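Section 3.1: Structural characterization of target chains.
Under the original work plan, the team committed to producing a structural model for every single-chain target entering the pipeline before any wet-lab resources were allocated. The record below documents one such target. The sequence was received from the expression subgroup and is listed exactly as submitted; it comprises 199 residues.
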Amino acid sequence: MGPERSTGHPTRRRSGGGPRAADRILATAVRLVTEDGVRSATMEAIATEAGVGKQTLYRWWPNRAALLIDAHLALADRELPRPTTGHLVGDVEHLVAGLARVLADGTGGAMCSAILLDGQAEPELLDSFRSEFIAPRRQLLVDALADAATRSELAADVDVELLADALYGPLWYALLVRGRPMRPADARRHARQVLDGVT
């Protein structure tokens, strides 16, 4: 994806401009997307606004989609650490509230909305967002549910894939359809209500 990564969130390449240049580029991409939409965040516009050459962008990122996804992940990665409570309700509340924090954050929510909405016309960007942001977080939830099933904390006939969608789906609905992201406290209450029906 972008400049070298480490566990947790992108790190910045130390040559050709260094971490400050990379931070400035990512911040510029976020600002352009949240202020004027994805279409405004061209490689040319990002380079100009960040005060770097366009060749610098292509040296660190293979394409615009990769740069924009890195910009979003720089905002969001720290919000969803792996759950460690060891029991169903605690793990699920942790993950659902973590996603709610990202979506309820003004900048993070705006980035998600812009990428999902404008990404309908940019399949590469949308595919990258799904694979880099949505899928890993959903998999954490599926894994937590599967672990709970092995501990007999879920009914035997529960489909953990469908249950994951039932838990995360309303958060995306609140952001994209209602235009009012779910607060973390409400997300925890939502998680408990859903789990009450399957435990």
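The CA atoms of residues 83 and 94 lie 6 Å apart.
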